[in-house]
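Lay summary. Proteins are chains of building blocks that fold into shapes, and those shapes determine what they do. In this project we predict the shape from the chain. Here is one chain we studied, written as its sequence of building blocks.
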Amino acid sequence: MMEREVVAMLKVGIQLYSVRNSLKVEPFKTLEKISQAGYKYVEAANHNALEDNGVGFGLSAKDMKKALDNLGLSIIGCHINPLNLERLPAVLDYHQELGNNQIGCDIEFFPYEDMDYLLRRCELFNQVGELCKERGMRFYYHNHYQEFQRFGSKMVYDLIMEHTDPKLVYAEIDTYWIMRGGQDPLKLIEKYRDRLILLHQKDFPKNAPQPVKMFDGIIDDKESITFTLFEDTINTNCFTEIGTGMMPIQDIINAALIAPNLEYIILEQDHTKLNEIDSIQVSMEAFRKYSGTEWD
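And here is the predicted shape, written in a compact code that computers can read:
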């Protein structure tokens, strides 16, 4: 097979969910430590976005942007929950002023109970995408493993992509959850390369207490996976610092480099045995061995 030309380098960022406990205790000090560790790009994950203007630090967009600028940090995305069409425009305006041009949805809408529900969710995603497009922004969908259940012969993830407008709804592919859903992240990256705008990278331990595939005896692939069930079946020992586990990260980077709209690969640590700041520093150092990435 002919090798594809590498078209760009991926800038490495950090998902702030990785330091969520530290942020609760000392939010601005945590941002300072992230900057001191050497990260320059951050993606926020906010589940109270409508109550706190979209980022969670209690500042106006102008002051929040000044704080980020002073630390040498740029916000390159944010998970927004809930997606309330009446109140979302104010959140988008906040992010536009902040300098963030893309927002996403991660975990709000499962279980995907039936096709009618799925189609209604897709219509909402299109509407959110339209609100973003009006502001020169982009909306993206972030997967977990539930999207790799099937309705008939098709995976839920493929149905979401089929029933949303590719000019309004983009993809933030999480390779860890794709793998845990029993799918090949390289194939999904190739299939949705034109819609891929952010890439999430975690890692799976070499001696994990669970099998890689969640549907391999951990949970029934026909079961309705609620958020509670999702949390109850996740073993915190099935995460390790990125670059220290068994995921084919260099292959993932190589596959992603041909995605025309992708600029960032974002490291995310869902659970760690280390201090959170120590954890993201270990991941940074372990991740430096891969080619095709840049930090500046």
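What the prediction tells us: The two ends are 33 Å apart (CA to CA).
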